[in-house]
Amino acid sequence: MSKATTDLPAALLALEQNLPNVRVPGAHDKIYKDECVYSFDSPESETGLYICLNTFLGFGRQHVEKHYAKTENAVYLHLKRTKKPIAQSKHDIEGNQLPKRLAIGLEGGFDTREPKFEYDEVWSIVVLPDFLSIPLPYELLPTKIATAVSAIQTFDSARKLEEMTPWDGEQRLASRYAYELMQLENGVRIAPAGWKCENCDLTANLWMNLTDGRVFCGRKNFDGSGGNNHAIDHYNATKYPLAVKLGTITPTGGDVYSYPEDDMVLDPLLADHLAHFGVNIQQMEKTEKNMAEMEVDLNQKYDEWSLIQESDSKLVPLYGPGFTGMINLGNSCYMNSVMQVLFILPDFKEQGLETSSVEGIRPYMFKSLVGKDHPEFGTKRQQDAEEFFRHLMTMIERCDRSGPSATDAFQYKVEERTQCGQSGKVRYTTRGDCVWSVMIPTEAAMNKHELAAYEERKKTALAKGEKADSVDLVRPVISFNSCIQNFASVEDIDDFYSSAVRGKTRATKSTRFVTFPDYLLIQLKKFTVGPDWVPKKLDVSVDMPLTLDIGFLRAYGRKPDEELLPEDDEVPPTPVVRIDESMVQQLMEAGFSKEGCQRAVFHTASSGVETAMNWIMEHMLDEDFNTPFQIPGAKKEVQVSEENIENIMTMGFTREQSIRALENTDNDITRAIDWIFSHADDDVEPAPAAAVPNANGNKPPVPDHNCRDGPGAYRLRAFISHMGTSTACGHYVCHILKDDKWVIYNDEKVALSEKPPKDLGYLYLYERVGN
């Protein structure tokens, strides 16, 4: 590559010749001056950043020539920035307090700012292809160039504009019950202090119902702390919707919870609602932690956070190829962890460099690209790493339509065998996946005696008025073999419609692998719903093996003596069942999807909310639980748009695929494309003549051509751990095995791991051993 040369006469002449292609940025132009749009080069990189004075896109040195060759835009504003740390004052150090709220970059929240630095910036005009340079400032610049340069230097960058609206975990919506809240004229008056639960002796974590003014304790936490659930019991008995947490009320508001909306909410009329019971909001002072502060405390629980981040170890920092960290862009650690695990490189270079001098990349452009138009990943909210991995796989598949996809290494097929208990006939179905989601059988804990002793110590501590977390934590220890056995076990189905007997009967279902992928990503299902319908995270230790052999889970296909169940078109029409929409709405208020709630009400014949909720508890992990629901046997007429058909066909799909997809997605083009990818194999049926019996006399299922296959023997290469109480908050960290040494990636911090906590992971990446 040629170097920029300072030849003022030649540079000014070239600049004059290319002046027609220069634009002055307007109010609606986005200026990419923080990072190269094709790489992670930035103004702080060795060669700086080149900003096109026509498109205002930023480029690193290796991409600016490609942009010039493609567009013939020759004039660029070059920025080279050098960062120098400034020693922090005593005041700054003392002011570095623990977070008090679930906020990113806001007062009292998680401070994502780097230590204070000063910057040396060097600006220049560079004209390609000879990289002729004009150092700035330069008084004889053409007016158009000077105006464009000034605008680029002073306008906010595209990245900064995007970040102007910070994410704040405390942001809440106004409750729909607030404006028409019923308040009883019962003479209740609430004192400004000295509160106590009406049903027990608790004097903390108290909630006053805003309809009748009665005071009860809050929910019990997963660790035994909190209340005794008396406030929720009162709601279940009365259905009075809103309650405020006493001790959090200040002149600016307080913590208000809506039971039917199942969320923290805003009550715009809180002052009036409190005054009804004699509470003057202007005289109230905060005496307890609010819910956001309690969530922060739970998320920073010493044991889990310190173990996963290896806080008690003096870790040796690493840098170089394969050891570059990714700076957290406001709760993007779910993205960082997935991308770092996927970027597995073979080389290993241990370096003794100070952490403060190691630079991580800022994946602004990548985050914007993968989150574009997505309702969740396009936001700054914390997301689930497993869901992000699936989203990324879908995006890659869409771009690899012309040939083999990079996602093929993760794709596999499973076979589900269902056998009618009355007729003995069977049905085989296959489906594709890229993540093996495994349930954790907590009842199979190997340390039940220690757990019982721990619960007894915790109960004793609570009886003495001590906190539950004062007792050393003991987690259930589960062998991954128990998880595999749970997956391999035969599932009983009590409500199975058999096309052979034309009625409901019992059946059994088993699942096996048709193919084994090159890379097997395992998700431990740690997030579940408790018996009180409250989402929770299982705090368990799973003994994950370094080597794994699941070859015995291979599917053998249909046996020669097995008779298949009749096809669906031979089944008589399903009796009409009315779906009670009011029940669907009540179930949705508990936090479940509309599709899942419709399924529950349909399959329980609208017999009641409690019955439907029990159905949800049993089926919420089904593959189709959240997919669009249509009553079985009911044909829904959909008018398909010819324009939508043509738009989908331009992406390489057939007309028949396009029509079927639109018919199954209410003519929604975006959902239709996703439907095609998730039903790509619906029409692929293994031909009986092509299935050659194996040694057992069975006809094995025919693997899909997009799924690689091989032995089911694997070794652990990486794992991602989650810290926190739910996927909506907390932090992700990943560990990767490189040259038989574990490396920890904690956003931009990369170091040699001393005690990799492989028993506390959430996602595990296994690599196939052998061919």
From TrEMBL:
Residues 173-281 form the UBP-type domain. InterPro entries: Papain-like_cys_pep_sf, Peptidase_C19_UCH, Ub_carboxyl-term_hydrolase, UBA, UBA-like_sf, Ubiquitinyl_hydrolase, UBP13_Znf-UBP_var, USP. It catalyses: Thiol-dependent hydrolysis of ester, thioester, amide, peptide and isopeptide bonds formed by the C-terminal Gly of ubiquitin (a 76-residue protein attached to proteins as an intracellular targeting signal). It comes from the Eukaryota. Zn(2+) binds at C197, C200, C217, H230. Residues 324-769 form the USP domain. GO terms for molecular function: cysteine-type deubiquitinase activity; zinc ion binding. Its EC number is 3.4.19.12. This is Ubiquitin carboxyl-terminal hydrolase. It comes from Hypsibius exemplaris.
